[in-house]
Amino acid sequence: MVTRGSYELFYWPSIQGRGEFVRLALEAAGAPYVDVARLPAEQGGGVKVLTALLAETSGGGPFFAPPLLRQGTVTLSQTGAILQYLGPRLGLCPEDEASRVKANHLQLTVSDFLVEVHDAHHPIASSLYYDDQKPEASRRADLFVTNRIPKYLGYFERVLESNAAAGGRHAVGAALSYVDLSFFQLMSGVGYAFPRALARMTGKLPLLVALHESVAAVPAVAAYLASPRRIPFNEHGIFRHYPELDP
Amino acid sequence: MVTRGSYELFYWPSIQGRGEFVRLALEAAGAPYVDVARLPAEQGGGVKVLTALLAETSGGGPFFAPPLLRQGTVTLSQTGAILQYLGPRLGLCPEDEASRVKANHLQLTVSDFLVEVHDAHHPIASSLYYDDQKPEASRRADLFVTNRIPKYLGYFERVLESNAAAGGRHAVGAALSYVDLSFFQLMSGVGYAFPRALARMTGKLPLLVALHESVAAVPAVAAYLASPRRIPFNEHGIFRHYPELDP
User: Fold this and answer.
1) Which own/partner pairs from A208-214 qualify as long-range (CB within 8 Å, at least 24 positions apart)?
2) Torsion angle of alpha carbons B59, B62, B66, B68, nearest 10°?
3) In angstroms, what CA-CA distances link A220 with A20, A23, A61, A119, A212?
4) Residue B12: which residues within 8 A CB-CB, separation 6 or more?
5) How crowded is residue B112: how many other Cβ atoms within 10 Å of its Cβ?
6) How far apart are the first and last CA of chain B?
7) Average pLDDT score over residue span B156-181
8) Of A57, A105, A123, Cβ closest to residue B60
């Protein structure tokens, strides 16, 4: 874990979740940061530090939910807002307004997709266990796999196709951006949670498949993915592998 | 309907939906705009113009879903991104970065709440009718009304409380912002869809109740709400009044 730095990330310490999109940006850029809730309490870490910051009103809060990012006196919440803030600062988004606007709407659409991924296994309520909503999850996941995954991933494929300046290799501009990292994470997550469904559609998603491989090969990303800082996918996060939901 | 102007809004013509948050900002600011899909086809309007623009790649697209806002060569999608862009331009957000960041995370939390409002009546799929998912909707709405509405509205109430500079009368800064307009719309919508639930909790939401009244009394907003440009709430939008979901 990086122990000192100008950025402090506050997110649940045991899942990738939405925080992973921020972790990937910080890691890909080699930015110094602290993943605060993963530090021991003796070092100023732990979940209580996170939940206390949610109620903080001095830096733009109170906040509804993590992830939170703090830099100096500025605290941000909402994954899309955090990445929009970090993008130009980390060299992960072109600085012109048209590119920033485009990256932002793409990232917010990634966020929309994530809600649907989560609700495929929790269609009734986050406050209930999966076991308490299995029939509903089965019904929702069936339509999610059939209609929604192809709709979202097909859209992101078209985004890559349409970015001719980058030869289809990047979502925004001609170089790696936080949107590419987010597309990588979506492909990783769908591949973990719905491997059979993804295998059936990869033939139609050549640019996303290639992007997933090229991002994983970026040295800083590869180093991160191989490190203990990368929390493995598990059945407490957004992407969960329940085989019965991926027939 | 305003027929000429520098802003063009593209949204479903028969519902308030997410487009309403953009309409309210344009109307409150007295900005000239065209609500394109509501114009007749002979005047360049209609839904087909909207759906064609979704596929457009020259101005930042393709786009996943409306609302879309076009100004000159820039096209934006995603409600939060559109409002972030419009805010300072319409005088509906302070220009300093801290205020813009705060307004943005609040608006993205409004967007998260809207997804949950929608899914209270459509927990299985948007592609199915409500009648085809009534048992699931009943189960989800029960928990939504009990847990989620109080959690979100309680949070927005705390946001107002914590903005001491505005005496609790505004969400960001000391004047009307697009976040205030969005809080107004949420209170209107919850009051339409879940009147009994809202009545039970208004005693704990004095600042939101007062904000709802004060925004409705802003002359430009009052004129808009009384005009045919304000589409009435109905059972095709996000906020739907199904009495069985509001026992």
Assistant:
1) A208/A153, A208/A156, A208/A157, A208/A160, A208/A183, A210/A168, A210/A169, A211/A160, A211/A169, A211/A170, A211/A171, A211/A180, A211/A183, A211/A184, A211/A187, A212/A183, A212/A184, A212/A187, A212/A188, A214/A169
2) 0
3) 15, 12, 32, 32, 14
4) B19, B37, B47, B50, B66
5) 18
6) 38
7) 95
8) A105
Using an 8 Å CB-CB cutoff, list chain B residues near A77: 105, 109
| CB-based contact A194:A149 (threshold 8 Å) | yes
Tokens of B38: 């509501």
Query: Which residues of B touch chain A, with CB atoms under 8 Å apart?
Result: 57, 60-65, 74, 76-78, 80-81, 84-85, 97-98, 101-102, 104-105, 108-109, 111-112, 115, 119, 123-125, 127-128, 136, 139-140, 143-144, 147-148, 152, 155, 158-159, 162
Which value does ipTM take for this structure? 0.96
Predicted local distance difference test score (pLDDT) of residue B58: 84
**Strand pairing partners for A75?**
A70
Token pair for B146: 């009990």
Q: Which domains does chain A have, with CATH numbers?
A: 97-218 (1.20.1050.10)
Q: Which two tokens stand for residue B136?
A: 């699931």
- The full 3-state SS of B129-184, as one line of letters, equals CHHHHHHHHHHHHHHHHHHHHHHHHHHHHHHHHHCHHHCCCCCCCCCCCHHHHHHH
Output the six-digit token pair for B169: 């009368």
Q: How large is the average pLDDT for residues A158-176? A: 94
Q: What letter represents residue A37's amino acid?
A: A
DSSP B192-217: HH-HHHHHHHGGG-HHHHHHHHHHHT
| CA–CA dist A211, A209 (Å, integer) | 5
Distance, in Å, from the CA atom of B13 to the CA atom of B35, rounded to the nearest integer, reads 8
Q: Which pLDDT score is estimated for A243?
A: 97
B152 interaction partners in chain A (CB closer than 8 Å)? 64
- Residue A143: exposure state from Cβ atoms within 10 A (0-12, 13-18, ≥19): middle
Tokens of A47: 């979940």
- Report CA A215 to chain centroid distance, whole Å: 14
Q: What is the DSSP letter of B19?
A: H
CB-CB neighbors (< 8 A) of B159 in chain A: 62
Smallest Cα–Cα separation from A23: which of A45, A2, A51, A44? A2
Torsion of CA B210, B216, B221, B226, to 10 degrees: 180
Interface test with B, best of A78, A85, A127, A143 (most B CBs within 10 A): A78
Q: Is the pLDDT of residue A87 over 80?
A: yes
